[in-house]
Every structure is written in structure tokens, then in C-alpha cells.
Amino acid sequence: MRMSCGLTYRSMKSRWITKLSRPCSHGPMGLFVPPSPPLDPKKVKELQRFITLSKKLLVMTGAGISTESGIPDYRSEKVGLYARTDRRPIQHVDFVRSAPIRQRYWARNFVGWPQFSAHQPNPAHWALSNWEKRGKLHWLVTQNVDALHTKAGNQRLTELHGCMHRVLCLNCGEQTPRGLLQERFQDLNPSWSAEAQGVAPDGDVFLSEEQVQTFQVPSCVRCGGPLKPDVVFFGDTVNPDKVDFVHRRVREADSLLVVGSSLQVYSGYRFILTAREKKLPIAILNIGPTRSDDLACLKLNSRCGELLPLIVPH
Ligand SMILES: [Zn+2]
């Protein structure tokens, strides 16, 4: 089974051409979604009952909801990046302290951006958007940085770890759209070209050192400071105000549904602990075990995009 899609990006007279150099033979879903048993009608009914009984539902999503949109996760057995490759996410402290590391990060992110930013919501994202429109969703918290909930139209949403579609100046805090930065990259690197093999959950790709060293990285237009995606890298902490905000939403809720997260990262897991303190019923939809299976009244090992659209949000 082919595990990644090859992409070729070449600069030609300031025009960028993107093409699939090795077409995906299985489509995005088959590549990154772990195998799961067929849908169990009894479990579907149980989830329907859980949702129907909930009047203030809080949903927390993780990487597992986006694998069906073609974005790999890190932790899934066999299909996650940790299992398939030696790739590991960048550490916050390395990014902040080292200009060469930032150069490498941005060069790779620049190459991966056209594909990463083109990902679209899948039926699970659309289902949650519909739940919000129907008044079924008290709040949605996502650990993902891919903007797919926003693309699907969700507004009652907290992006716990930020969003790759925004850029932050480390010096003055100015926020700018990531799309604008892509244009600045292109202007500064008109003859630079690279080939990328596979894109990670944060838009990262592989490049050689030689390719990286010739890549020009722009700085903040306002103050000249270094730029960083507006996301929480590993080793950094989520803004305390944002954490407090989500804790309040959890305390207001009457039930909690986890979608596509193994809850291994504490920044999301802590809200499960708050829900447990409040004795909220917890349901978990995730292929494979999670850190909180023993706290859940309902556990479903199904594809998010197959199951959630079956649930009627009344
Ligand atoms: Zn600045």
C-alpha cells in the first residue's frame, strides 16, 4: 500500500505549478485512517440516544476527525506518522531560539502549504456544523490546526492549539493571514524549487539541507521580528485565558463527546478531568484505545465520517 502522495512544486517565471507526481491510488481516506470494524447498529442507536438526551453538548475533536480529509495524524497505529516515519513535530523552544531551525521549518512549510491549505472538511466536519446550526452544539473544542471546522462553518468553536492559517510575530504579536506570507515567500524566492514527499499534520514536509539553506525567510512587516505560525508547538503551553474559557464551557455543558482523539496530550485531556469532576456523561468516538476509555459511558471504534452523519441532532 502506498503511504504518501508525492508532490512536485516548481517555480516558473514566478508562477507556481503544483502537480501530483505519484497519484494516490487509494484516495485520502484509505491512506491515513486506521482499520475499523463495520458500524454496529446497536452502538449507533446508543450514540443517537446520548445526543438526543444532551441539551448542552460539548464536542472535543482531535486529529482522528481530519484523517478522513487526507491529513495524517501522529499517533494512530500503523498509519500515523510516528508509526510510518521518523518524523517528529517541531519543539517550541527550538523554533524560538534558532534562526536556522526557523528557516528549515518555513522552507518545508512553504512547500507543504498548497496541499495542506487545500484540504476540505469531510462528512464528520459537516455533521458537526449541522449540529451547530440546529442548536445541538453548546461548544466545539478542537485540538486540530487545519481550519477544517471553520471551513465547514462552525462558529461556536475554540481552536485550542491555534490555526496554521494565521501567522504570529514573536516580537510584536501582529497576526497576519498565512496566505499572504505564501506570496511573500514566492517574491523572495523566485527561482527556488523543491520536491516534497508527504505532508505532516502541521503542513511539514521533507527537504535537503542544501535546499533549506538557500531559502529566504521574511520577517514581520511591522517590526522586523521573527514569524511563527499561530499554533501551539510541542513543548509550549496553551494560553491560560483560552484554557479558562474552555473550562467554563465544559462546566456549562451537560455531556461531552470526544471525536477522533486518543487524549494522549494533556491540553485536551484536562477537560475530560473537568467533565469527570462534574460527573458529565462522556462518549468517545475514536478508532483505537484512548486515555479515557474507562471514564466513558459509551465508546465507539468507528470512522467519524461514517457515524456522525447518521446521528439526527434533535
Ligand atoms: Zn512584529
Automatic annotation (TrEMBL):
State which Enzyme Commission number(s) the record gives: 2.3.1.-, 2.4.2.-, 2.3.1.286
Molecular function terms in GO for this entry?
histone deacetylase activity, NAD-dependent; lipoamidase activity; NAD+ binding; NAD+ poly-ADP-ribosyltransferase activity; NAD+-protein-cysteine ADP-ribosyltransferase activity; NAD-dependent protein biotinidase activity; NAD-dependent protein lipoamidase activity; zinc ion binding
- Provenance organism: Dipodomys ordii (Ord's kangaroo rat)
**Cited InterPro entries:** DHS-like_NAD/FAD-binding_dom (IPR029035), NAD-dep_sirtuin_deacylases (IPR050134), Sirtuin (IPR003000), Sirtuin_cat_small_dom_sf (IPR026591), Sirtuin_class_II (IPR026587), Ssirtuin_cat_dom (IPR026590)
The record's subcellular location field reads: Mitochondrion matrix
Q: List the PROSITE patterns hit by this protein, alphabetically.
A: SIRTUIN
Task: Give the primary localization class.
Answer: mitochondrion
List, from the UniProt record, the residues annotated as the active site of this protein: 161
Give additional notes from the record. According to some authors, ADP-ribosyltransferase activity of sirtuins may be an inefficient side reaction of the deacetylase activity and may not be physiologically relevant.
This chain belongs to which protein, by name? NAD-dependent protein lipoamidase sirtuin-4, mitochondrial
